[in-house]
Predict the 3D structure of the following.
Amino acid sequence: MSTRFFDSIRSELGEVHRATNVTDWFPSAEHHNMYTLLELPPLEVDLRPGVVLLTGRLFNGACAKLVALATMVQLLFLSVRVHQHVNEDGGPGNDRTRLAVLIGDYYLGRFFGLVGSSGMMGVLQPLSAAVCRIHDGAISRLHLSATPALVADAVRQETAELIAQACLIAGLEGEAPERAREDLYRLGYSLGMGYGLWARGLPKDACQHLKEARRRLAGLAPGAPRDALDGLAAHLLDLPGHPLAGAGG
């Protein structure tokens, strides 16, 4: 899948990916085939940091702070992803399970370290609250069959909320006025719902959210960042979606 709408931020995305890459840090992970848990579809690799960077650019955010925020969001996403893919049948002697937990915790530790080193302490409460909602939702859906309604609920808690908070913070780190808080949150929420429903095989349900995202973008200042975000929404609207997947992850 092409991610050409992220071309204008390719350098910054490279910084994020280098900061979140663990393949050289855990040699034993390859022995246990752990990197299969870290493999992401091309769009998933760039989605969250890309939305953060472009939203921040809409409001003239400082590049260093936006890269730090995009990295924080990706670290949280990767931590949750690895933890959610831990083999539930693995007992205490299962090295693959233990290593997955440790790598997920490592991502989380890197997140807290980056919050401290960047001085962006204000992101801690909203982003940690979003992660708590991810886990609350995952616990409540444990062992339930994946129905369209359950998948939509999973998308809301596991995808949309984190992206919504990230968009809000990215805008406020720039020059977005306080009155724009709701619009920034709803933009991120609509993009997150649209992407998450599309990725889980519900493109018709995704359509209304993606159209809402485009409507909100139309009210923002014109320019390359807005065009790129609009291109992302339009791209997803043109695609058929994936087969229906489970509610988790």
Notes: Confidence is low (pLDDT under 50) at residues 89-93, 241-249.
